[in-house]
Amino acid sequence: MPLQNRVDPFGAIHAVPERGLFTGNRGIIHAPETKTLLKKRWALQAWIICVCKFRDVRREPMGRNRPGGKAGWTELFFLDEVTALAAGHRPCFFCRREQASDFVRRFGEAFGIAQPRAPMVDKRLHKQRLASGGRPPIVAVDKLTELPDGAMVADDAKVYAVRGGKALRWSFAGYDEPVGLDCLAGRPLSLITPATTLLVLRQGYEPVWHATAEA
Questions:
Q1: Could you tell me if 200 and 122 lie in one domain?
Q2: Tens of pLDDT along the chain (215 residues)?
Q3: How many Å apart are CA 199 and CA 182, to the nearest integer?
Q4: Per the structure, how many domains does the chain have?
Q5: Which of 36, 52, 85, 156 is the most buried (most CB within 10 A)?
Q6: Largest Cα–Cα distance in the chain?
Q7: CA separation for the pair 50, 158 (Å, rounded)
Q8: Which of 114, 130, 146 finishes a domain?
Q9: Residue that finishes a domain, picked among 73, 100, 130
């Protein structure tokens, strides 16, 4: 039975078979005895995106991964980096230092900060993440062309990623065939990628997409 550690673009955590390309965490939010989530959905403001394989590190998902048999950070999984960014996560400085440095540098460029630091990013993101109480703004269909590639919008429970002037419907298994942005006309659309992340994407940060988006 799948563990409840798969994250959707809204930042909600589910139990589904698909794992995805990336892992990450929000601190310790599980009970290792039962491998189930606690009531809280984050333990710190630094929500990160990690690679699933790093050096010779081996972890037991939602187990006891700290010295002395203590619970380590709770492993969460994402379809791809685009999904993780929409959920309010950002690259990890330990296992994805190059991407994390690039993300924070572009954050500094977007906000005019000469010496940007990861905690500055985390503080802004935490106010905007839907899973931590942020409210998604409404976006008009005619404004979708102004969004950077990698932005995600939602029509109720249906989520779409913007790429190359098209909309790709998201699922835990991957993306559907792209459709024209005008196909979303007449629907109330919410912009679910945090505003801070959108600015970083506009500055040229290139997230990793699932292979189904390349089809």
A1: no
A2: 899 999 999 999 999 999 999 999 999 999 999 999 999 999 999 999 999 988 887 888 999 988 888 888 999 999 999 999 999 999 999 999 999 999 999 999 999 999 999 999 999 999 999 999 999 999 999 999 999 999 999 998 899 999 999 999 999 999 999 999 999 988 889 999 999 999 999 999 999 999 999 87
A3: 24
A4: 2
A5: 85
A6: 56
A7: 26
A8: 130
A9: 130
Using CA atoms, how far apart are residues 92 and 118, in angstroms rounded to an integer? 9
Alpha carbon distance 108, 104 (integer Å): 6
Task: Note whether 79 and 160 are same-domain residues.
Answer: no
Spatial separation of the C-alpha atoms in residues 139 and 189, rounded to whole Å: 6
Token couple for 5: 């550690």
Q: What angle do CA 133, 139, 140 make, to 5 degrees?
A: 160
Q: Which domain holds residue 150?
A: 135-213
